[in-house]
Amino acid sequence: MTAPHRDGLAPVTSRRGLFWVGGERVAGPGGTVPRGPMFVAWEAPAGEARPLPFVLVHGGGGQGTDYLVTPDGRPGWLARLVEAGYAGYVVDRPGHGRSPYHPDVLGPMGGPFPFEAGAGLFAPGDPAHTQWPGPGGVDDPALEAFMWGTGPMIADLAAAQALEADRLARLLDLVGPAVLVTHSAGAGCGWLAAQARPGQVAALVQIEPAGPPFAAIPGVGTLAWGLTAAPLRVDPPADDPAALRDGTPRRLVGLDGLPIAVVTGGASPFAAFDEEIVAFLRAHGCERAQRLHLPDVGVEGNGHGIMLERNSDAALRAILAWVEERVDQ
Q1: Count of domains for the chain
Q2: Which terminus in the chain has less CB density within 10 A, N or C?
Q3: 63-69 average pLDDT score
Q4: Distance of alpha carbon 174 from alpha carbon 98, whole angstroms
């Protein structure tokens, strides 16, 4: 492997920075300590950016680096967004990456993410899954490059989603109207943040969101509220998630007017239930929710880690085309 600084990549001119979205101050053994800050890295074109920035939220036990570079060393979605004229904000959800985690502050950790689970989800070696940048399996170097950046999730999924949604809402307050993009188990905070700040979300793009509705996901938690473990806001109101199954027509407050894309890859097991998620959304007033199955727009062979795969650029172009057709900029 060549030293990265000697790899001959073209120089990049952009504006960039980083900051944390603050949390609360809570009592610790030796004094007051921070609780749940969220790290944010941003990048924008050197000149004027297009009006709507993108906010990119990683999945599961990953971190924002999922959008910075692919496992085989190509530029990630943040760089490609900047090339397309957009500003982008990439977060490390609280307790992940550069957002510190201590169980005395954020609660117990869930289990570590094993290579076997990573291979099954991202690099199974399925012949139909042609875009993963490695041979697949637990000894795949591309999988290893990805796995080094993974860590445990907060064990209480509902508490984690509520915390993450609060930090995302604060970020949206800062950056203004934006396109919110989430991945996998990061979907929960996306639904909730869009409800909390509907005027600040121009479109919601859910990449391979956790599901199907009401699923119990081993090692992660239960989507008691259909799409989330934390309570969703519905009208008529409901204090018990069981009410979402009682047949009463309800709308998802704040999501019902948004353009929403549920994006799946052609070789991903998540494509088996993406239509169920769209049906749930539409049954709850989200008439602008759509399935964006990548093979339907000519992007073939993707699994779960779409932003990490060989054709990540083509997948992003399909998403940008979907957004630009539906959102005034």
Answers
A1: 1
A2: N
A3: 97
A4: 20
Residue 88 in this model has a pLDDT that exceeds 70: yes
The average pLDDT across 244-272 equals 95
Q: Domain residues for 183?
A: 12-326
- The CATH number linked to 62 is 3.40.50.1820
What Cα–Cα distance (Å) separates residue 7 from each residue in 57, 71, 182, 248?
A: 28, 15, 31, 59
In angstroms, the CA 77 to CA 327 distance is 19
Report the pLDDT value the prediction gives residue 10, as an integer from 0 to 100. Answer: 76
Number of H helices, E strands in the chain: 8, 14
Mean of the pLDDT values across residues 35-44?
97
pLDDT of 130-170, one tens digit each?
999 999 999 999 999 999 999 999 999 999 999 999 999 99
Residue whose token pair is 């800062």: 174
DSSP class per residue in 149-207: T--PPBS-HHHHHHHHHHHHHHHHHHH-SEEEEEEGGGHHHHHHHHHH-GGGEEEEEEE
In a domain, 7, yes or no: no
pLDDT digits (tens, 9 = 90+) for 169-213: 999 999 989 999 999 999 999 999 999 999 999 999 999 999 999
pLDDT(1) > 70: no
- Within a domain: 130: yes
- Residue 175 CB-density burial (10 A; 0-12 exposed, 13-18 middle, 19+ buried): middle
